[in-house]
Amino acid sequence: MLDVSGLNVKYGEVAAVKGVSLSVPKGSIVVLLGANGAGKSSTLNAITGLIPSTGSILFEGETISGQPAEDVVRRGISLTPEGRRVFPSLTVAENLHLGGAAHAGGEALKQRMEEELDRFPILRERFHQTAGLLSGGEQQMLAIARSLMSAPKLLLLDEPSLGLAPLIVDKVFELIASLKARGLTILLVEQNAARALEISDYGYVLQTGQIVLQGAGSELAQSDLVKQAYLAE
Q: Residues 212-232: pLDDT tens digits?
């Protein structure tokens, strides 16, 4: 579904991503592992057109390199950013509406909203509350639901469990697995390597902007590099 080849991202003179190549097959979960500053978020932001990049990005066989972010969303890619980044002064309803505004309107938008409220019952309870008053876990659910409002074929998740209580982390990973079971393709950036590798079909390890290791999720979990860097007790 997604093929990235020779991706480069620079911030001024600093190279954040250096020749990254990766593939995300349809219906799979692929994880990007790496320390802070390894280039994981920059890779996701480049794929979605939020930051300039060079290299080739193909989605369903067609190039999306250099396309505006709104066009990338319309093609079927959605990003749940690190740190949730909900609109705190807007209500849950308004946040969800904005998530689908670029892709649907009228009855289609209402139907999608109902689907997400069924998926996340807590958001139905908080429907008219401002997002800034939600707990961290509730904001994360809202951020994911907002991404799903555009009916993506490929969902990019950037650190969905970051800063959440263990019980909420469990719910987040259960949700990710259930989305895959419904046919959604997912590219996941996650610091919780153990949990991410449990549910991932394939993974890549980034260090200082370059891929240094790749393989099936089960294989990476047994790698000495991954064990020492990301799975240490």
A: 999 999 999 999 888 887 775
Residue 201 DSSP symbol: S
Q: Is 150 helix (H, G, I), strand (E, B) or coil?
A: coil
pLDDT digits (tens, 9 = 90+) for 101-126: 766 667 888 888 999 999 999 999 99
The secondary structure element, H or E, covering residue 75 is helix 69-75
Q: Where are the alpha helices (DSSP H) in 182-223?
A: 193-199, 217-221
Q: What token pair was written down for 17?
A: 């991503």
The residue type of 160 is P
> How large is the average pLDDT for residues 65-74?
92
Question: Quick one: pLDDT at residue 233?
Answer: 45
Specify the pairing of strand 54-59 against strand 2-11.
antiparallel
Phi, psi (deg, nearest 5) at residue 15: -90, 110
Selection from 186, 200, 183 nearest residue 77 by Cα? 186
Query: Rounded distance, CA 13 to CA 15, Å?
Result: 6
102 with 150: CB under 8 angstroms? yes
Structural domains of the chain, ranges and CATH numbers in brackets: 1-76+154-233 (3.40.50.300), 84-151 (no CATH)
Q: Report the chain's C-alpha Rg in angstroms.
A: 17
> Which pLDDT score is estimated for 104?
62
Name 131's bridge partners. Answer: none
